Amino acid sequence: MILILAPDTDRESPQYHEMLDHLSRLPGVTARVHQVQGREQTLTEVYLLGNTAALEESEMAALPCVERVVRVSADYRILGRHKDDDRAAHFAYNGVDFSQDNLHVFAGLCAVDTPEHVDQTMRAVAEAGLSCTRMGAYKPRTNPYAFQGHGKRCLPWVFESAGRHGIKVIAMEVTHDGHLEEIHDALEAAGRPTGVMLQIGTRNTQNFELLKHVGRQTDFPVLLKRGFGITLEESLNAAEYLASEGNSRVIFCLRGMKTHLGDPHRNFVDFTHIPVVKRLTRMPVCIDPSHSVGSRAASPDGIMDMMHATAQGVVAGANMILLDVHPAPQKALVDGPQALRLEELPWFLEDVRLAREAYERRRDLAQRFLAEQNRQ
Amino acid sequence: MILILAPDTDRESPQYHEMLDHLSRLPGVTARVHQVQGREQTLTEVYLLGNTAALEESEMAALPCVERVVRVSADYRILGRHKDDDRAAHFAYNGVDFSQDNLHVFAGLCAVDTPEHVDQTMRAVAEAGLSCTRMGAYKPRTNPYAFQGHGKRCLPWVFESAGRHGIKVIAMEVTHDGHLEEIHDALEAAGRPTGVMLQIGTRNTQNFELLKHVGRQTDFPVLLKRGFGITLEESLNAAEYLASEGNSRVIFCLRGMKTHLGDPHRNFVDFTHIPVVKRLTRMPVCIDPSHSVGSRAASPDGIMDMMHATAQGVVAGANMILLDVHPAPQKALVDGPQALRLEELPWFLEDVRLAREAYERRRDLAQRFLAEQNRQ
Amino acid sequence: MILILAPDTDRESPQYHEMLDHLSRLPGVTARVHQVQGREQTLTEVYLLGNTAALEESEMAALPCVERVVRVSADYRILGRHKDDDRAAHFAYNGVDFSQDNLHVFAGLCAVDTPEHVDQTMRAVAEAGLSCTRMGAYKPRTNPYAFQGHGKRCLPWVFESAGRHGIKVIAMEVTHDGHLEEIHDALEAAGRPTGVMLQIGTRNTQNFELLKHVGRQTDFPVLLKRGFGITLEESLNAAEYLASEGNSRVIFCLRGMKTHLGDPHRNFVDFTHIPVVKRLTRMPVCIDPSHSVGSRAASPDGIMDMMHATAQGVVAGANMILLDVHPAPQKALVDGPQALRLEELPWFLEDVRLAREAYERRRDLAQRFLAEQNRQ
Amino acid sequence: MILILAPDTDRESPQYHEMLDHLSRLPGVTARVHQVQGREQTLTEVYLLGNTAALEESEMAALPCVERVVRVSADYRILGRHKDDDRAAHFAYNGVDFSQDNLHVFAGLCAVDTPEHVDQTMRAVAEAGLSCTRMGAYKPRTNPYAFQGHGKRCLPWVFESAGRHGIKVIAMEVTHDGHLEEIHDALEAAGRPTGVMLQIGTRNTQNFELLKHVGRQTDFPVLLKRGFGITLEESLNAAEYLASEGNSRVIFCLRGMKTHLGDPHRNFVDFTHIPVVKRLTRMPVCIDPSHSVGSRAASPDGIMDMMHATAQGVVAGANMILLDVHPAPQKALVDGPQALRLEELPWFLEDVRLAREAYERRRDLAQRFLAEQNRQ
């Protein structure tokens, strides 16, 4: 059960404490307070866990500060959509608004290699009108003897370059608790020139301890990649881990599944799940066409499969795109062959714009058709 | 090796026979003649199988009637795309042109039930401006005790209704050699009021004997569904079975793969393979959103997943759509829950039109970008 | 619902006809008569399909000739095991008894190549004390240009050689209705020197028309291979197709599943399903280690993976083994690399004997333990 | 390249330091020293990473203390088997010897619940003659709101009970770096009454940071479970992470794969990979029949599928078995339905003994056959 408090409820007020006191006396029920930073106001929600079946909605609604009560079904209590549940499906971070209704492109380096490449990439991204990027400092690799990323020592160059080019958010994978502190410290040391979205990779989707650690901080929003060998439900439960610890600023990323049936693509592209994630949860949905497709092969119409996959995601309402670009793909230390060249970025973005426009028209068409149907 | 003859080569001419005589004397080489009915002319191609490595291209090109020689790589000899291979990627049937460049919607009944439902459906399809439909007379069912379709006894009503409403092509699944004769006879008996595209279902993708039988006739074009548990390469090889027996008017249909990773959809939608099939072969590519997705569930934007999947196929260049519609889905004998209602068809078609328009713009954009790149 | 008639019921007797008459008057119920050739007697069973929920068991049990009534659950009506169902789990063919309790090895050629190889193989098989073999005349191949087997022209040599060496049953794949007639005719022409078990391959597991054709004859028992990309339940339903048409002399063969998770083996070996098939149905269970594993690789203990897989099947109660052997594997036209050499056959059989002995001891142990537990 | 030093080389000796000095001067080469505690002696191995292609084997063999040189292929440098590589495939821990040649049963609680259940289980295990058990204190759960184990607070009872009953090794899952310290401290506090084998679960197989942390300590050996959605090669690479950090006392555990093709079992049992792991690496191989099969269902011979799966693993040479038992399965907090009751343990062990005996006979048979073959 979720108690949604009146907007801008003062957490120092006596009414607020009275409500918490009451909740603390309910037998078998635990209350967890979550704060959601919206575009214009701060929302406070109180999640009641445990024996909530015994609670009366009307009684809870009568408590001080409580504006509305949502009884949740078993799955995805916090991030899920429930009956009569109009909680927000968006959040803001460092001036950028993430939502199930809009679209952001995060183009950047899969793996940070040299300061020059970082800076060239940031410049190209900014010139293309984007305010977000991706930069891989910590790289989990299947083979223990492969290059594992420059780690914390590259963070200063990366953050400074981002600040120089006005980049607001960098998606960056973390694979260990300690990486959060390293990122936090490097950001502070650089004077907070940019923001970071913590990325959890597909091999760590069910690394529940890492999820809990990342979920316990609310400085950084989180981009959680779907596990490549588990069901969608299991991956959505993993996202709920983040929220259950307190951080519900989570974006869910589809990145293709591992199976022999998706060949010749590197993974079996799963972007048809975009509407499913939106229906089951309130998370914005990201797609990762670079790792899903994994090559630059093109069809006879001249369009790379990777761009077709992107358009497929966007035309169905994707809210974010992770894209590998590189100033010199042949010199990239990781996944060079799938990267777009910097000079191809404008083409890619124009292609995305066409697909997004089609999505918006489709959405308007549906509204018109459904409204007409309801009138009948 | 393929010898492409001059257009409209007369197969009764002495030059033609001289060429065939020459080929018949080549040691270890077998020649098979294929005729391809194009939009404006008839093309004749001679496929040389066996020890063709020993043949000189220039020598073959010098034979009478031969206009061009294509040396094929190992895979998909007839249907594949090979180096310097500009053979056609289209064919005509009963006045309808099928190609890797255009788009047709085949809306109709998954399983024929009553004459009334057939006629209501045909009327709605025709009124929506379509000239093609799908009608299932022979239904392969997992459980031997389930309804298996009305079989040949429904063919007369189906063909008459099609004729009445001006439907030109009906996609119809066949599961046994004998069904071809039944369809042929029923069409003749009804005075050929319409045409039939023979459909091979996913359970028969590797029923090589059926493929050979269907490949040996050239009256009807063929819609081959991808096998739901085999690699794309294996399914493309199955298509080549049809062509190797003489029928290269083949459309390849993506219909989702069986795996637990696609839940909650009925199958794991594989429409990202559209550009792959177009790159590897010259077959037009069909998508089957109804069976792939298998439900009418919708996302918060009001659009059914099935329509999102369709748009994803179309925005990446799909050439044909198989769609289940039904006048009364709750009464359908097979797969009712996934069928669109007839009154939703116009919405669906308008949604498809928006996605197709986006595809065409994307294609033009790519041409412009690539042309500019080449100029540099 | 199944009516099990008294043993050796005379199908010409007035009582028998009285019973059938009665059944024919039941509304919405269809009766199908099946005869089961047991070791010592012939059993007749009448399957009632349709609206059987309305029937009273006691009323049916009171009909003439009826000895016992079994109400079946939905799945696998004929081949399944149902509550209080002690119908036989065995059948005899050409003097060989197949059962869920015993074990037969069918060693032979995956693909028939030359008369000499056939005869050498038959001799080795007979000398090893076996009375069954496998011989592939019709080979379904993924690529249409690959060798597809010698077909009917090799049947005379194969059957004559079998007769010469006293082989009683040959497992032989069929892929088309016509093959049954060819096999029947060749056997007759040769004077019935041996018997044939018709084998349905994994690509035809859901070729329902072929299953129905094979199910409508009762001359030959059937070996049905599990489909390599479908669930066990779907494959068992395919077996039921055979039985629903009248032939319940069916053996179910596990042969590994297609997925990337079984590498480096050719297929993901599924022999752990042996007890499951025995629990759900009354079919004897065969294993195909040659195609499952697909190589001769060995572990440091010197034992080939293929033999380990065989032992794993046998120790869990497998009833039949299909094994590829070849007099000269390097010359085999199909699947040579996985074949055992003829001189390795005695080792293989001794290895199987050790595993079978372990199974029998395990079975006895279970009986003792469970008996003791029941006494307590 | 691996330099195997003379047994019991003194790491304080001048020769040893001379050798290390020499290695440190090789350009582009890094040396890592590993110590392997064998049954009777301590072996020291020096792994050379980097540009080792340039090194001469003879020159390396001439260095002081070096007894033998093994040039390794790319994969699994430390744990793998390489050409002419006779490094040990066994290790000792707390008086128990683990090897590719023997077999240990670890029966115990999937999840620790009460001190009484722990003690009852330890007693039954000890009475059955076993010296190892499994006890789950930290339980990773798919759903964040499910019971996650008692964690460190149960360690004192568990270790004390183990000591009381003479249990030598407890397999215990860890999911976070911090758990190692908790286990270490609790063992010390209890006076080291038993030993612990750290278990990495299937959701953490590619949690490389955890693997590195666990690999950096050598107090505890490690049981690494195969990842349920990745290839065998990827899981073996994960094992190599442990070794590359210094801990090569690793046992590899097969536990079934996640796919819809293994139904009705909880996972698709993969025990046919036992000989593959033994061929590719020197790790002993464990099987986990409880989680693979996931139920107590039995076949008509009265034997549970779980016991059949176990016998299949053992007959092919498995070296360790993880088994869930519980004094009162219906009260278990996690995975009760699949647990064996304590009074069934003797049956299980006798069943295992029969399968192991069969394996040993099969191994001897192979040695005889291969020896004879070599003589010819």
Explain the layout of strands and helices.
Four copies of one chain form a homotetramer.
Chain A: E1 2-5, H1 14-24, E2 29-37, E3 42-50, H2 57-61, E4 66-70, E5 90-93, E6 96-99, E7 104-108, H3 115-127, E8 132-134, H4 155-164, E9 169-173, H5 177-189, E10 195-200, H6 208-216, E11 222-225, H7 232-244, E12 250-254, H8 274-280, E13 285-287, H9 289-293, H10 305-315, E14 320-326, E15 340-341, H11 345-375
Parallel strand pairs in A: 7-14, 8-9, 9-10, 10-11, 11-12, 12-13, 13-14, 14-15
Antiparallel strand pairs in A: 1-3, 1-4, 2-3, 5-6
Helix pairs in contact in A: 3-4, 6-7, 10-11
Protein name (chains A, B, C, D): DAHP synthetase I/KDSA
Pfam family, one (chains A, B, C, D): DAHP_synth_1
Keywords (chains A, B, C, D): Transferase
Walk me through what this model shows:
Four copies of one chain form a homotetramer. Chain A is of the alpha/beta class and 376 residues long. The first copy, chain A, folds into two domains: 85 residues, Alpha-Beta Plaits, CATH 3.30.70.1140; 264 residues, Alpha-Beta Barrel (TIM Barrel). Helices cover 34% and strands 20% of the residues of chain A. Chain A has eleven helices and 15 strands. In chain A, the strands form three sheets. In chain A, strands 7, 8, 9, 10, 11, 12, 13, 14 and 15 form a nine-stranded parallel beta sheet that branches. In chain A, β5 and β6 form a beta hairpin. In chain A, α3 runs parallel beside α4 and α10 runs parallel beside α11. In chain A, 53% of the residues are buried. Chains in contact: A-B, A-C, A-D, B-C, B-D, C-D. At the A-B interface, α8, α10 and α11 of A face α8, α10 and α11 of B.
